[in-house]
Structures are given as structure tokens and as C-alpha cells.
Amino acid sequence: MRHPAKNLQSDPTEKVDLTDPAAVLKAIDAILRARYGADYGLPLLESSIADLARAFRGDYPGLLRCDTHYHDLRHALDTGLAMARLIDGHAVANPETAPKDIDTEHALLGVLLALYHDIGLLRRTGEEHLEGASLTPVHEARGTEFMRDYLSRTPLA
Predict the structure, then answer these.
(1) First-residue to last-residue Cα distance in the chain
(2) 121/143 Cα distance (integer angstroms)
(3) Interior CA angle at 106 toward 78 and 81, to 5°?
(4) Could you tell me the residue ranges of all domains in the chain?
(5) Quick check: 147 and 110 in contact, CB under 8 A?
(6) Which among 36, 37, 102, 109 has the fewest CB atoms less than 10 Å away?
(7) What is the pTM of this model?
(8) CA-CA distance, 157 to 131, in Å (whole number)?
(9) Biggest CA-to-CA distance, the chain
């Protein structure tokens, strides 16, 4: 029996459109809200996903549009959703220790770092002559630098 082709824009459950930041925000919010309550930090998650989308589209100050074919916005959103699911899965598997293992602040931080894990592949203003893929050897250091600055302006600072 032949199975219908999966929607390549959705997650493995085929319930979340990974090309839609609002859909991914809704899915991550549902997970974190169910696990940590309504005060886990939705405003920061909302603004961070909006900033991420702006960055990958070239609308974030100092960054150029993403030009890599795999390490794109879809991949970033997919990774953030996967991290939220991993954190939730850890809590399900370890109900006695989970609240101490990963508290609310660290859960949100983990999701944000997963969302932004490839931000260092985005070219900066003045790097128009480069291809994002050429930044692979230095993208982790660049991403760390970006996130250190970005997070310093959030409630997680």
C-alpha cells in the first residue's frame, strides 16, 4: 500500500507548519504552559520568535537575509519545537526530579538557544560578498556572541 506523501513543511506529527512562526509559537507555548504554568515567559518567547523570523528574512538590524538552504528559518523553528518536546519528555520520564533538573527559566533558555542555534550563519551588514555556508567554521562563536548580546536585554539576563 502506498502512503500519501508527507507535507514537508510540517513537523513529524503533521500538526505544526514549521514555516509559520505563529504556528510554532503556539505549539511551544502549549508545551511550556502545560509544563510550567502561564508565567513561564510567553512575552519573551513571542518577541524572540518574531526577532528570529525578522533575522532570517533580513529585517533584523545588522543581519542579512539567510542564504543557506538547510539552516534556514524552518530548521530553526523545527529545532526550537524539538527542544520544547525534549524538555517535556524529560519531565514525563523523570517526574520526581524534573522540576529540579530543568526549572522554568532554564527550559525557556533552552528553547531560545535551540531556536537561535544557527544565528551565526547569518551574514552581517558588510558581509554581502560572503555566503552564509562559508561561515560554518565560525558560526558557533558568532552565534554565542549574538546570543550573549541578545539575552543581555531580556528578563533572563
Answers:
(1) 54
(2) 8
(3) 10
(4) 21-151
(5) no
(6) 37
(7) 0.93
(8) 32
(9) 54
Interatomic CA distance for residues 65 and 146, integer angstroms: 16
Q: Which residue has the cell 525578522?
A: 54
Residue with cell 548580546: 149
Using one digit for the tens of pLDDT, what is the confidence trace for 96-150?
Answer: 999 899 999 999 999 999 999 999 999 999 999 999 999 999 999 999 999 999 9
CA–CA dist 91, 93 (Å, integer): 5
CA atoms within 13 A on the CB side of 32: 31
Question: CA-CA distance, 154 to 140, in Å (whole number)?
Answer: 21
- Map residue 15 onto helix, strand or coil: coil
Residue among 89, 73, 95 at smallest CA distance from 25: 73
Return the SS3 of 71.
coil
Residues 6+ apart with CB under 8 A from 56: 65, 66, 72, 73, 76, 122
At a CB cut-off of 8 Å and minimum separation 6, what does 93 contact? Answer: none
The continuous run of DSSP H or E covering 63 comes out as none
